[in-house]
Amino acid sequence: MIDGFEKNGVTLNHEVMPNGEQRFRMYFADGSAYIRTESSEDGSWQNSHYHKSICEAYIVQKGCIVFVEQSLDSEVAQFSILKEGEACFAKSLIAHNVFLPRNSVIHTVKYGVIIDKDWNAFEALDKQTKPLSEDELLRLYGR
Hints:
This protein is mostly beta strands. It has one domain (2-141): Jelly Rolls, CATH 2.60.120. The protein is 15% helix and 46% strand. The protein has helices at residues 2-7, 123-129, 134-141, and strands at 11-16, 22-27, 33-38, 44-45, 49-50, 54-62, 64-71, 78-83, 87-90, 94-100, 105-112, 120-121. A hairpin with a 5-residue loop joins strand 2 and strand 3 (33-38). The chain is globular and about 50 Å long. It starts with a helix and ends with a helix. The model has no long low-confidence stretch (mean pLDDT 92).
C-alpha cells in the first residue's frame, strides 16, 4: 500500500510535536497537504504563522478549537471557537494560530499556489495567544 503512495509522489509522515500533539501528514508532489492533528492530553497552542501563497482549511472532527487570525499590519487579533463539524479558512498573508483543547481532533488541508517552505513565524501573535490558558479561552469565548 505504501508503494502506491510513493509511486504517486505522496509522502507520509507522523510526528509528535513539542506541545504533545500528534500529527499524521500526507504531502503531495504539487505541495498540497493533508494533516490530521490529535491534541495533547492537556490541550495547547500551536505556533503563530502565516503563508505567503498557500491557504489552509481547518475542519473540527472532535471537540473544538480556538482559531485566531490577525492581519500582518494590525495589532488586533480576532478569536473564534469552532465546534465539531465546523470549519474555517486561513488566507495567505494573514497570521493565524490554533488552540486545541484536550481530546480534540482536526483536519487541515493546505491548498493553493504552493511555494517551498511557505511557513513564516509570526511572534507578535504568539505573544497575544500563548499566555491564554484553556480555561481563560473558554471563559472569554465560550464553548
